[in-house]
Amino acid sequence: MNQPTESVWALESQALSGGYGTESIVQDISFGLHPGEWLSILGANGSGKSTLLRLLSRILLPQQGTVLLDGKAIHTQSAQAVARSLALLPQQQTIPPGLTVRQLVSLGRAPYQPWWSWELDVADRQQVTRSLESAGLMDYSDRLVERLSGGERQRAFLALALAQTPQVLLLDEPTTYLDLRYQLELLELLKRFNQDQNLTIITVLHDVNLATRFSDRLALLKHGKLHHLGAPIDVVTPENLAEIFGIDAAILQTPVGLQICPLAPFTSSKPQVQTL
Amino acid sequence: MTSSQLPSLPRALPSRSIVAVLIVCVGLMLTLVLSLTQGTVQMSYAELQQALWHQGSSINQTIIWDLRLPRIVAALMVGSALGLSGALLQGMLRNGLADPFILGISAGAGLVAVALFTLGLMQSWVPLAAWVGAIVTTSMVYLLARSSTGISVERLVLGGVAISSLFGAVQSTLLLLSEDGRIQAALNWLVGSLNGRGWNELTMVGPYLAIALVVGCSLAQVMNLLQLGDDLAVSLGVSLMRSRLLIGAIAALLAASAVSIAGLVGFVGLIVPHGARLLVGTDYRWVLPLSVLGGAWTLLLADWLSRLGAIELPVGIVTALLGAPVFIWLLYRRSHAS
Fold this sequence. Notes:
The complex is a heterodimer of chains A (about 280) and B (about 350). Chain A has about 280 residues and is an alpha/beta fold. Chain A has helices at about 50-55, 80-85, 100-105, 120-135, 150-165, 180-195, 210-215, 230-235, 240-245, and strands at about 10-20, 25-35, 40-45, 65-70, 70-75, 85-90, 170, 200-205, 215-220, 225-230, 245-255, 255-265. Chain A has nine helices and twelve strands. In chain A, α4 (about 120-135) packs antiparallel against α5 (about 150-165). Chain A is globular, with a radius of gyration of 20 Å. The mean pLDDT of chain A is about 90. Chain B has about 350 residues and is mainly α. Chain B has a single domain (about 65-335), classed as ABC transporter involved in vitamin B12 uptake, BtuC, CATH 1.10.3470. Helices cover about 75% and strands about 0% of the residues of chain B. In chain B, a hairpin with a 2-residue loop joins β1 (about 145) and β2 (about 150). Classes of the chains: A alpha/beta (about 280), B mainly alpha (about 350).
């Protein structure tokens, strides 16, 4: 069973560099994720978080390095083969008008269909129903996606990704447009999949507190380079926060884990305020 | 009410789509009968039936078999090709302003076809040559519109319009220089006409068109995935490069087939997909077949209208007269929606 050649990583990034045109936005990123691990990528605006996620999900071709999914390079496989084990929830969604939730989630079975296919078979339709159920959307299945609230919409797109039955799920700022309750609800839902089904998760998050609370490991990016990688307790330090975000912060121990309390931006990087 | 009590209705919408398809089919059949019986020579339904079975007056037989039927089949072919081509282009670019006419694809196909016609070269290769012309023009417009961040639809339309007018001018010149200055023929070609189309042209184009219609409709699922945006489409297994090439090539082949039969018929490819989406939503498994049927119906109707008056109008004038107001209404609605 456990052959020595078999990859221990669900997803591995090897010396990955990439960007747009000739410009490199992320450089030399290496890490590996165990099956069932949850990694959050943190960094200031423009540090290359989304670019890294696009490289990991095969949308962007790397300039250097490779991404291995279960030991196999993703950029040499077909998009369809990769889509069977890796799913992405982009930051902003395009919503075609007139699409129902069930129609949307049904598209998650596309990686298992030939391109000319017309109708899903019974097994695929059952998987769609299971995904709708697990995202708590059964009552919404005939509603139009465009009419849903922000939280419900995000759950619908999560159900779409889950219908792919992926081993690895990448999420680009999934909580950005959600209020506090929906943020927690979505992350709790992910945690359940993470624990029950051993789903490997990578999230790009802005909220350091939520990232710290839900992730197994954190990756801190600065100017496109991986600065720190490790368990939240080791990585979230006043020094690192100062270096990555340029803020002075206090770190508190609370019942739900570490809480970061930003005190003030460093005066050196503070914008000049013009006064009359 | 909990989810277990709710009846599972996986397909609430298709019933509406089926109704839409049925209505278009019935409309198509009615227009077909009207179009066969009416014209300079009026026929009763019984006379039409006789003529179709090669019975009764030989004049009626000639009118039906040599004049009206080829023309009607031509209208059906051109309409379905333009409708599907427009639906594919609009879906691929996620923009309702795309159509083979505006993007310059028709002009590219037209230029090659006119060149072959006027020079009297390789007539049987016209559909294939027109396709090559359409593909080359599509690539030119695409390259003009491409920037580092992606395709800009504004640049795409501007490039298409520029190439259309340039190629249109060359076509006119070619037509006017040929033989004894066939101004009438040139005019008919440039506005699009079905007058005097015989079985020859149709059997020449038919096979290409049939293949393009079948492959085009089978792309429905890819089109549905592309509606979700490029990033999500890729993560759902769509190869962007390959699917764009395939959709572009099929749309170009359809436009080229239409152009080799009827010249430059405008507005059908633009308006028909909008109508289809209004009726059945954005599920391309319904939008594509309905665009085929709707396009065929629209052109058949336009052709019938063009023959009603004292002077027979080229069908392209009728589609422009009908289509332009609809287009203006769409633009108006767009600017007020956003």
